Amino acid sequence: MNEIFKMRFLIIALVATFILAVSAACTTEVVKEVVKEVPVEVVREVVKEVQVEVYRDKEGAVRTREVEVEVVKEVEVEVIKEVEIEKIVEKLEIVVATPGPVDWYVQTMDPNHKRGGTLKWISLGPPAHWDYFCCGSLTWHGTMHTMYDRLLRHDTRTADMTVIPEIGTSWDRSSDGKTWTFQIRDGVKFHSGQDLTGHDVKATFDRMVFPDTFGEGLASVNRGVMQSATLKEITSTDSEVVFNFEEAPTMTHAMAGFTDFSFHISRKADWEEHNGSFKEIDLSKVSGTGPFKFVETTADHFLVEANVDYWNPHTPYLDRVETIYFAPFTPALTAAVQTHMVDIAQATAPGDTANLDAVPGLQRNTVLWPFYWHILFNTDRAPFNDVRMRQAVALVVEPEALVAGMNQALGATFGGGWFPEGMGMESFTADQLRTNKYFRAPTEEDIAEAKALLADAGYPEGTPLPKLDLPGRNNKFNTITMELVQAMLLQHLGWESELRMVDVGTWREIKAAGEFDIGLNNALYTVPAPESFLRDITGTCDGDVPCNFNLGKFKDPVLDDLWTKIKAAAPEDRYAVSVEISDQLDKQWPYLPMTQAGRNIVWFYDDVKGMPAHGSTYAGFAEKVSRFDHVWLD
């Protein structure tokens, strides 16, 4: 399989996995039925495969057309029918919502399971604080997931990753699609002993979507998921939570929000007491309702123990989970896996994969990370409030070289251009990008044009350029990437910069405060639609305010109108609008695209049971690995 095909397959698989996970879980009709068997149903799923045609437009530029072909596949799905269940139908809509709480619980699918033992696994850390809403790193979400529940979750027992109930036991959608009503599970208690109510769920979503509810300046890394879905208001009673949207979100978009990995439900009283910031909380007093309870944390590890009062009578099966902190993509981490110091690990260096594959009893799955890495410009201040300065940088910084450097540690793919491949937008293969201006290795003509742009902006050759501030996160791939940016600017333009590496706990806050000139940034497209994640990077929301991930404070009314246009466009018109968007981005250069996806390997020994089958591939992030409620040790 050649590299271009691998890359294209990766992105198409990533997008398809998101769509299928939602369609399998959320296209449901409730049937009241009590059956003690576990039947296997054959579900016919329509998968759209994309064929790419290359052509030249009237100006001679290389363009692509993507033609979608529907392929019907039969998939066997196990459905546990012990109480009211949701049977899968073939539409992307909830036909009939469950009228009341559902007495259904996640549990191991192995009848010969065992209980007890301590699972040891690797994550990044230690965290600088405990405010998991402010940051999207494994440092938090690879460590803290065991202690919390969410409104809905993915069924992480298999690679299907179907959306299933958790704290929300059932839901109903209004006929216009703008109102979603969730029934909240009875009998759920926080680790501190208090009962969970719908008001706690509302407060948690308020903290995520409307952080100013609790105080000014609160970060919310995944706010854009619901912000782009136009969530307007949340109301609650003890047993119910209602989400009101300005516009009806798609099923995929809504489910991405309701299952988001950062929305750990916490007490309303705790949010209020701490003014929405959990940075300095005592985890023994302020926690969640999840299957494990906090015990201790040190500079080396994070320990939780089974919640004996957990609302699910079947889980957890483990006595304890010990998270051992390691720097990612390092030889020390690989050695810990090779020697069975840990049972489960991730974030190993790609170059170590072959050696780890040779370890007896060590199995692995591949997680497709929806990572859209890019170089961000601070357009809110000089020099990059001038588009000519941004264009000059884009002409001499080679994105593929940045990805190659990043891949010494992190698995990522170069390609797509402004849009990742496989989304039905204008996109390009890596080979095509290698011949396209701005994306190719800089030519003599590119460097000359960049210098001319600088001169036109007031910096003719020989005039000192302003020294740039380049903050980066203090890990291997961030350091390599920013060092390459620094070197390219100096080599081709004589432009000096200062590189400073900062802790992951402050990395995003520095960018949000505008204390940078150029920075490395990553957006997760859990909603694989550009009007969601790309608008979040470049657009304005709530009037004239930069959207949540628009950390460069870029504003362009023309582009804002195009995001609105593509959202309203019929499916057959979306590609044409994407060409308009590409043309506008080519003019403005708010950022420099780098990757269209990431890839992470999760390693686990064969005595770890309850994981998706060895060799599985699925899309997601830390939430698809680090819950461990149905995992057990043999």
TrEMBL record:
Spans through the membrane: none
Gene3D superfamilies per the UniProt record, alphabetical: Dipeptide-binding Protein, Domain 3, Periplasmic binding protein-like II
Protein family: Belongs to the bacterial solute-binding protein 5 family.
Family annotation (InterPro entries): Peptide/Ni-bd, SBP_5, SBP_5_CS, SBP_5_dom
Protein name, entry field: Solute-binding protein family 5 domain-containing protein
Domain Solute-binding protein family: residue ranges: 163-539
UniProt-recorded Gene Ontology molecular function terms: peptide transmembrane transporter activity
The keyword Transmembrane helix is assigned to this record: no
Protein source organism: marine metagenome
Signal peptide stretch: none
Keyword Signal on entry: yes
GO cellular component, one term: periplasmic space
GO process terms (BP): peptide transport
Higher taxonomy: unclassified sequences, metagenomes, ecological metagenomes
Swiss-Prot/TrEMBL keywords: Signal, Transport
